[in-house]
Amino acid sequence: MDTSESAGAPFDLVVIGAGPAGLTAAEEAQRRGWRPLVLEANSQVGGISRTVRWRGNHIDIGGHRFFTNDARVLQRWQEWTGGRMREVPRLSRILYRRKFYAYPLNLCDVLLNFGLIDLARAGASYACSLARPIRPEVSFADWVSNRFGHFLFRRFFKSYTEKVWGISCDRLRADWAAQRIAGMSLPVAVLNALGRGRGARSLADRFLYPALGPGSLWEAVADRVVAAGGELRLEERVVGIAHRDRRVVSVETEAAGGTRRMLPVQRLVTTMPLGDLIAALDPPAPAAVRAAAAALRHRDFLVVALSVARPELFPDNWLYIHDEGYQVGRIQNAGNWSPQLVGSSGTSLILMEYFCSRGDALWNQDDAALVRLAAGELAGLGFADTCEITDGHVIRELNAYPVYDETYRSHLDIIRTYLEPFGNLSPAGRSGLHRYNNQDHAMLSGMAAVDVLAGVPGTSAWDVNIARSHHEEQVVAS
């Protein structure tokens, strides 16, 4: 069934996607007096920052800290939550061969856990990196090896990173490291051990967090947008975007049950993956642009939530699992983020994160097999007996991580060059910009997208979080 709305655009802004970037853009538009329509393909707002309810538990997909050095973002969080967010101390460690290492690396842990031979190898390797640094510094392997030596790169970075991305560290670009773990190096670890370091810039030691998970905040923002006169349509997917003379004129959507609508567009913010955006354009983009969009890759992942009949398993918010013998990449302990995430007293909610790609062997396992795998790995790591694991639930997340492979930048440049002349379209968000953004960066891109469409000079959502440094050096938490 096909329907169409009135020829004159009834909304000042159409937003594709109700994640952090899209909802922030809609709320920002209302501050300008615009009426937004938000279209979300899923049944729940929040995107990858949504909170999934399961048997009284609240599952945060991926673990979403709230930290920022931007006063506007902090002000929005406080306004949207009425100032009611927990301040949570961060504790995260690396688990490697049954030994714990602080993250960022701390010299004391290395000295305690390494034998003399490994210490000598690490020292010699780092000396080599100082004497003969890799130039040019192109890959993730280059970036880390130059700062820690190749021995520590292989011990503490290679396995986990390749679990996450599914490609060799030689193929992952240094851009990712420079944005995510800037400031980390062996000298920093030494200074931290001596109490004289500032720590890595990418690692805030405290963060804000909503008691019922990040999705509760984004649900509040969605309610706010609707209460102020905006509209939110869930389970309505954009399947076509018509344009003329470098302006979007309408979007075609498909709702549950197959109903299609044609919606006129005055302005458009899109957070859909760039590959999907380019594929939806009518008339089609040039062949080179379509090829570039098709070449952009995402990494998907699975969360296996386990209910464990023991209240305290480990003190960390999360653990990085670097052992090659385990498929799990990261383990979240939900109760250490907020006790209110855990549905039953005397139990733990453990979130086992598996990085994969749709269609691969891990993705294709059924839910029962994935729960068995996760339970077996949690027990194998020594955190719980299998008899204590009473229940499990699987969440599958597509397009979780934009991949920074060896070709992504050239493809992204082609797409950006094609899209920028569109006078009433602005991409935003992690998938919309193909950039590994945090929540605050996603929000800033949503704000910038609205500024672009309002004609504010010198603004671009593409320029949010592009510096080869991460944005956590000064964390505003109160």
CATH class of the largest domain: Alpha Beta
> What CATH architecture of the largest domain do you see?
3-Layer(bba) Sandwich
Q: Distance between termini?
A: 51 Å
Supply the helix-strand structural class.
alpha/beta
Reported by name, the CATH topology of the largest domain is FAD/NAD(P)-binding domain
Helix share, percent = 25-40%
Which key phrases capture this entry?
16 helices; 478 residues; five-stranded mixed β-sheet; FAD/NAD(P)-binding domain; disordered C terminus; Polyamine Oxidase, Chain A, domain 2; alpha/beta; seven-stranded mixed β-sheet
Description of the structure:
It is a single chain. The protein is of the alpha/beta class and 478 residues long. It folds into 3 domains: 206 residues, 3-Layer(bba) Sandwich (FAD/NAD(P)-binding domain), CATH 3.50.50.60; 78 residues, no CATH class; 105 residues, Protoporphyrinogen oxidase, mitochondrial, domain 2 (Polyamine Oxidase, Chain A, domain 2, Alpha-Beta Complex), CATH 3.90.660.20. The protein is built from 16 helices and 21 strands. The strands form 5 sheets. The chain has a 7-stranded mixed β-sheet with strand order 8-7-17-18-19-16-20, with helices on both faces. α1 runs parallel beside α9. The longest helix is centred in the N-terminal third of the chain and has 16 residues. The termini are far apart. 48% of the residues are buried. The C terminus is likely disordered.
Which helices and strands appear, and what pairs or packs with what?
Elements: E1 2-4, E2 13-16, H1 20-31, E3 36-40, E4 51-54, E5 57-60, H2 71-81, E6 86-89, E7 92-96, E8 99-102, H3 107-113, H4 116-131, H5 140-148, H6 150-165, H7 174-180, H8 186-193, E9 206-209, H9 214-227, E10 231-234, E11 236-244, E12 247-255, E13 260-264, E14 268-270, H10 274-280, E15 281-282, H11 287-295, E16 298-308, E17 318-321, E18 330-333, E19 348-356, H12 361-364, H13 367-380, E20 389-402, H14 408-419, E21 425-427, H15 429-433, H16 439-453
Parallel strand pairs: 1-13, 2-3, 2-14, 3-10, 7-17, 11-15, 14-21
Antiparallel strand pairs: 4-5, 6-9, 7-8, 11-12, 12-13, 16-19, 16-20, 17-18, 18-19
